[in-house]
Design a protein that fits this description.
With 320 residues, this protein is α/β, with parallel strands linked by helices. It contains 11 helices and 13 strands. Helix 5 packs parallel to helix 6.
């Protein structure tokens, strides 16, 4: 039996990107029950990709109850619905065999990985205050993507003068704006910029200087995306809600590395259940951004553990 429920988790504070603000994480929880064993997975439908809670629920409910992980890859396209089901099937298989998921894939137990902490878009004074509050964190991720970003970035650097910074523009800049900003990003010690131009309108990245690594986020979903990234991007951001689950995420990581891309593992704003499978993909990558649970005021009953070493592998009671 496959069931889908809509759940929401309050955020610790309003979270804003260039596309809008939210006060809660709205997610779908998939449970697959077979012979008294329940596997769980979570996804975050994303309007940017034409997904809604209702449309993703319908995709999941249209599946056969006995769907296998192999058949799932062609039964649904890459996206949120396939992600939740794929991860639930991995969880189910691990529980049925009395093993952890990393044992199933032949990998060692995941080590903790340092994760970015995201500062949402706000006015410069607010972002400076937030940066100061979180300057102890090992990596800050800054949401930008407006015509007025330099004062914000300067403010963050004042608030956290020594903390490494990565930037996510969420497709918010033009080629001209990015070309103007890039030298200042380098001056301020930015380590990476995510998706500076809109996916599908990013050909200029192959023609302008890239003085710091450029990461494909909205432009990279699964392995089929890779040919279109050549010459434009240096890093790919792997998110399970884009790849359609752990199965494709592991394949995309392997293919991306083979083609010379650096790897970032990211997330939507969801609970620890959504992040848990991604901790396996994040092993040894250049950048990890699995801070969703850190932005929440409430989480799953057995949340992921975060400490000075980073985000740890999930407990069996959570997933896998």
């Amino acid at each position: 039996m496959i069931t889908v429920t809509a759940d929401s988790f309050r955020l610790a504070e309003v979270f804003t990107i260039s596309r809008g603000s939210r006060t809660e994480a709205k997610v779908l929880t998939v449970r697959i029950i077979r012979d008294g064993v329940t596997g769980m997975g979570e996804c975050v439908p994303y309007a940017r990709y034409g997904e809604t809670l209702e449309s993703v629920t319908a995709e999941v409910e249209g599946l056969a109850d006995d769907i296998t992980r192999a058949d799932l890859q062609s039964a649904l396209p890459a996206g949120a619905a396939r992600n939740a089901v794929d991860c639930a099937l991995w969880d189910l298989e691990a529980k049925q065999q009395g093993k952890r998921v990393w044992d199933l894939i032949g990998a060692p137990e995941p080590r903790p990985e340092i994760t970015a902490y995201t500062l949402s878009l706000a006015d410069p004074d607010a972002m400076e205050a937030s940066a100061r509050k979180h300057s102890h964190r090992p990596l800050l991720k800054i949401k930008l993507g407006t015509p007025d970003d330099m004062p914000r970035l300067e403010a963050v650097r004042r608030g956290a003068p020594d903390t490494p910074i990565i930037i996510d523009a969420n497709e918010g800049w033009s080629a001209e704006v990015y070309a103007d900003l890039a030298p200042h990003l380098v001056r301020l010690g930015v380590k990476l910029v995510e998706q500076p131009l809109p996916a599908g309108a990013d050909d200029m990245l192959a023609e302008i200087a890239r003085p710091l690594p450029v990461c494909a986020d909205e432009a990279c979903h699964d392995r089929a995306s890779l040919p279109g990234l050549k010459g434009k991007y240096d890093v790919i951001n792997i998110k399970l809600d884009k790849t359609g689950g752990l199965t494709e995420a592991l394949e995309l990581k392997s293919a991306g590395e083979a083609q010379g891309y650096g790897i970032m593992v990211g997330c939507m704003v969801g609970s620890s259940l959504a992040m848990a499978p991604a901790t396996l993909v994040a092993q040894g990558v250049a950048f990890t951004d699995l801070d969703g649970p850190l932005l929440l005021a409430e989480d799953r009953d057995t949340p992921l553990r975060f400490d000075e070493a980073g985000v740890h592998a999930p407990a069996a009671a959570l997933w896998g």
